[in-house]
Design a protein that fits this description.
This protein is an alpha/beta fold. The chain has 10 helices and 8 strands. The longest helix is centred in the C-terminal third of the chain and has 23 residues. One of its GO terms (biological process) is lipid catabolic process.
Length: 278
Amino acid sequence: MRRGLALGGGGVTGIAWETGLLLGLQDLGVDVTVADAVVGTSAGSVVGAQLTTGISLSDLFAYQVSQPRPAPLARISPVVLWGFARALLRARGDLEAFGRHVGAWSARRADAGRLPSLESRFDAIRERLPVQEWGPGGRLQVTAVEVETGALRVFDGSDGVPLVAAVAASCAVPGVYPPVPIQGRQYVDGGARSGSNADLVADCDRVLAFTPVDRAVGPLRSAGQLLGDVPHLVVSPDADSVRAIGKNVLDPARRAASARAGRAQAAAVAPLAREIWA
């Protein structure tokens, strides 16, 4: 039996919530870290990279509940939401057209100096990845969207792209962080194609999908829609986790509460996850 794990996007708090949920499940005897295939999108690419490079969940959790270092506070502002909405309207239901429009808009904002520098973004990603080389076995797939074409790009370490660059691209939230140049192309957040990109593990026999933000908007599809008839379980934040996460998913100050809420939520998730995973 081949088991797949889809780790979705959801900002800084999404990383924390997924980490807490994974540790809580492991504490209850459901070890998701042994997945045969892992797809990571945005926040999920960070967690997926951490898991597949051998960092223990207890160490990852300890980092999430530690005091974050001072840094400029990012947020998904009304301007960013308007940029997304405008791209959706212009795309007219075409998923790749949406990726092109939102990617080009983000590139223009970066060129105008309205977004953080690439150097600062790479520094932030390096801080989150204690091991910065791809893990063994080729288990991890990191998703991003190419600005010029709007097409999905999947990084897995086989094409010479460094792990840090792949994760930075997957985390390049349009309008918030600059597109990331890789091999002569520019890339934005894999969430511009799907919050989970769970269809990349739909060839597995069983799938667990942890999705801090799992929405079907316009041409974007939810994890459940992408997985179809594959036996699967999709887990999103419960009411307590939503309160812990708060209104700004990019706020490091909400990291510890989000991690603890994810760990607590594992108690309700474990029986269903065990049924799928075992």
